[in-house]
Amino acid sequence: MKHHDVIIIGAGAAGLMCAATAGYRGRDVLVLDAAKQAGKKILISGGGRCNFTNQKVEPNNFICGNGHFVKSALARYRSSDFIDLVERHGIEYHERDHGQLFCNDSAKEIVTMLLTECEWAGAKVKLRTEIGKITQADSGKFEIATDKDVYSCDSLVVATGGLSMPKLGASPLGYHLAEQFGLKVLPTYAGLVPFTWQPEQKLKFEPLSGIAVPSTITAKDGTQFSEALLFTHRGLSGPAILQISNFWKPGETIKINLLPGIDARAAIELVLANHPKQNLRNTLGHWLPKRLVEALFDEALLNRAMNQLVHKELEQLAVDLESWEIMMNGTEGYRTAEVTLGGLDTDELSSKTMETKSVPGLFFIGEVMDVSGWLGGFNFQWAWSSGVAAGQAV
Ligand code: FDA
């Protein structure tokens, strides 16, 4: 049996960050992963440019059963710390809307940086390794059987991520391990994920595929995001939808304001005063794409002049434009979701070290736990911050 101080399962964002941090502290670290390549999700993230963090990271950018849990790790390893690391490796980056930071060139640079850090820190990464049975001996040491060797370690770090994108190697191993050690796992859901049409909506809206409009979307709990809304063949997507999907539950409607920043009633009054004979189709055509207008409103209504519409119809028009309430069929699920909501209950963990309270030496980091970030680099920041927190403690 080969012994290491620390074994980390998962060579993704959190696992590699933890490995380098622990390695620099002189710990003998081995990272095990079933995949052929380390950091597969990093490689495809941000359209291949990896939105690696955000300029402004606040605890309220995260969804977690315990809102205070993320504070300590985020305060001790900030986005500015990761930006310093990126700059030390000479990686060029740029800022997009809402403080999102992306590589100028390729997400590969982030993976190379993390693997270089592991190498400099003396942490070893072993890929193509299937994990078998994991047990804890009376001595407190963990034993990990794999398809190659059997290992033992003093600290075991579970960094296996969530269930999103199974084709990239996502697996439920982390949840199973948590349950094996008697830890509570909260139900999991696909997050940052597009919505799908109901069958009758599909007939009506599928031809709009490709249309993007600014929007403000509100979930049942009042959470709101103002970003682009995209119509797809399968349903609704775009940043506004991905963000709101984190706050949506099956059976709930969402409200879409198609004219964010415009007072619809005042705008309608203005057209009525200045262009009373203009038909509704042309009026709406100034604000929204024609195909969307035709899908949303009745043909006969669109052909009427503004001054032929009665008060009740004008009022309904404002409601339809400002708070279009729609019940989607569901989400595209883990196949396309960027994150997994739920997971290991954070009440089981120390927020300072990510060590489980009931099993000394067992740590969980990254997405496997019940912490999910908004769209915008927050999920990677959680991987970096939680990885460093555990790396300093193992
Ligand atoms: P991660 O998933 O990175 O790593 C888990 C590792 O565990 C993997 O290497 C996997 O192979 C390994 N593993 C799993 N099961 C195993 C088993 N049974 N045996 C052995 N190894 C196993 N976030 C963000 O902040 N900015 C962005 O731009 C994006 N973009 C993005 C795009 C897409 C398409 C997706 C799917 C996700 C994103 N994300 C993102 C989210 C981000 O990728 C995610 O939150 C982090 O990668 C989570 O890091 P972890 O280290 O926890 O898991």
UniProtKB/TrEMBL annotation:
NCBIfam families: aminoacetone oxidase family FAD-binding enzyme. It holds the Pfam family HI0933_like_1st. Keywords: FAD, Flavoprotein. Residues 4-392 form the RsdA/BaiN/AoA(So)-like Rossmann fold-like domain. Residues 189-339 form the RsdA/BaiN/AoA(So)-like insert domain. It comes from the Bacteria. It comes from Shewanella psychropiezotolerans. PANTHER family: OS12G0638800 PROTEIN. Its cofactor is FAD. This is NAD(P)/FAD-dependent oxidoreductase. Gene3D superfamilies: FAD/NAD(P)-binding domain, HI0933 insert domain-like, Translation factors.
